[in-house]
Design brief:
This protein has 13 helices and 13 strands. The termini are far apart. The longest helix is centred in the middle third of the chain and has 13 residues. Strands 8-7-6-12-11-13 form a six-stranded parallel β-sheet, with helices on both faces. By secondary structure, the chain is of the alpha/beta class.
C-alpha cells in the first residue's frame, strides 16, 4: 500500500526510523534474539533481494514513483501497478510504501536523494560454514572456485569483491569473523545486489588460536587447495597451469592495510603476487580480487 506523506513523521509512522535514524548496529539488533534488519537501496537491488528476504517497509521519492525512467518503471513493476506489470516477484500488498518528496528525503538523509527507493528487509539466520560447503559442492560439477576474505573490513571493498566474484566465475565467498557484513548498507549498494546472488557465510573458526586455524583446516578437509594473494618473493605466476588444473581452489584475500598474516601465507598451498609496474607495490584488495577471479575463476 502506498502511503503518501508530506514529511517524515516517525511518531506517526515508526517504520520510517529504520531508514532515517537508526545505525547499522541498531538495525542488526532490531528483533533480538531473532536476526535484525538491513536496508537495500535502489529498485534493482531490491528486486534481487525479493524472494530471499522478507520486505518490511519501503521508502521512495514521490517523483521516482511516477518517473519515466528505468528505475521508475522497475519500481512500479515491483509494486505491481498496471496489469501488464504484474509479472515476477513483487513487493507484497501488505507492505507499506512510504512516498515522500525528494527534497524532504534529501534534507533528512544529508545527501542528494537519488536512489529511487529504500527497502527495510528482515535478515535470515546466518548460514554456517558446513552448509556453505555443502551448497557449493552439492552439484555434479567437480571443478569449484571460492574466495576467502580475511579481515576485509571496508564495506566498499566487500561489495566490489562480491560483484567481481559473481561476474567472474566464483561460486561462493567465505568470510572470517572479523570481516565486514555483506548486508551492510553500503556493501549491498556497491555490490549491485550480488550479495543476494552468490552464496556466502561467516566461519567463526577462521581465525588463529594457539598457532592453528580450524577454519583453514576445515577448508582443506573439504578438498580445497588454497592460493594466497600476497606480496612475497617466493610466488607462482598467476597464470601458472598448476593453479588452473586444481579442481577445488580457494582464493584467499587479506586486509586492506596489512594484507594476509604471514602464518596464513605459510599455510597456503600456493602464493601469488600480481606483477606491478612503475614502482607501485600493490593494488587495492577489490581490484586485486577482480584480476585473480578473472584468471583463476571457473571459466
Amino acid at each position: 500500500m502506498i502511503v503518501e506523506i508530506s514529511k517524515i513523521d516517525v511518531e506517526r509512522y515508526p517504520e520510517l526510523a529504520w531508514f532515517m535514524s537508526r545505525r547499522e548496529s541498531d538495525l542488526f539488533h532490531a528483533f533480538e534474539p531473532a536476526p535484525g534488519i538491513f536496508i537495500a537501496e535502489s529498485p534493482k537491488v531490491i528486486e534481487r533481494a525479493l524472494g530471499q528476504y522478507e520486505v518490511l517497509a519501503v521508502l521512495a521519492a514521490r517523483e521516482d514513483l511516477a518517473a519515466d525512467s528505468s528505475d521508475g518503471r522497475l519500481l512500479r513493476r515491483l509494486l505491481g501497478s498496471g496489469a501488464e506489470d504484474k509479472i515476477g516477484q513483487m513487493i507484497p500488498e501488505g507492505v507499506n510504501v512510504y512516498a515522500a518528496p525528494r527534497a524532504e528525503l534529501s534534507r533528512l538523509s544529508g545527501f542528494i536523494y537519488s536512489r529511487g527507493a529504500l527497502a527495510a528487509m528482515r535478515r535470515k539466520e546466518a548460514a554456517g560454514a558446513d552448509s556453505f560447503y555443502q551448497k557449493i559442492l552439492g552439484g555434479t560439477d567437480k571443478r569449484h572456485r571460492i574466495a576467502v576474505l580475511c579481515e576485509v573490513v571496508n564495506p566498499t571493498n566487500t561489495g566490489a569483491i562480491f560483484r567481481s566474484a559473481a561476474a567472474l566465475g566464483i561460486e561462493g565467498i567465505l568470510l572470517s569473523p572479523d570481516c565486514c557484513d555483506p548486508l551492510y548498507r553500503r556493501a549491498i549498494r556497491v555490490s549491485m545486489g550480488t550479495v543476494f546472488q552468490i552464496p556466502w557465510a561467516f566461519d567463526p573458526d577462521f581465525s588463529w588460536e594457539d598457532g592453528k586455524n580450524a577454519g583453514l583446516e576445515k577448508l582443506k578437509a573439504y578438498g580445497f587447495r588454497t592460493v594466497s594473494m600476497a606480496l612475497k618473493n617466493d610466488t607462482v605466476p598467476i597464470d601458472d597451469p598448476a593453479l588452473k588444473a586444481e579442481e577445488r581452489l580457494a582464493i584467499v584475500l587479506g586486509n586492506e592495510g596489512s594484507g594476509l598474516p604471514d602464518r596464513m601465507v605459510e599455510a597456503s598451498d600456493y602464493t601469488v603476487m600480481i606483477p606491478m609496474a612503475a614502482g607501485v607495490d600493490s593494488l587495492n584488495v577489490a581490484a586485486a580480487s577482480a584480476l585473480a577471479f578473472w584468471e583463476l575463476g571457473r571459466k
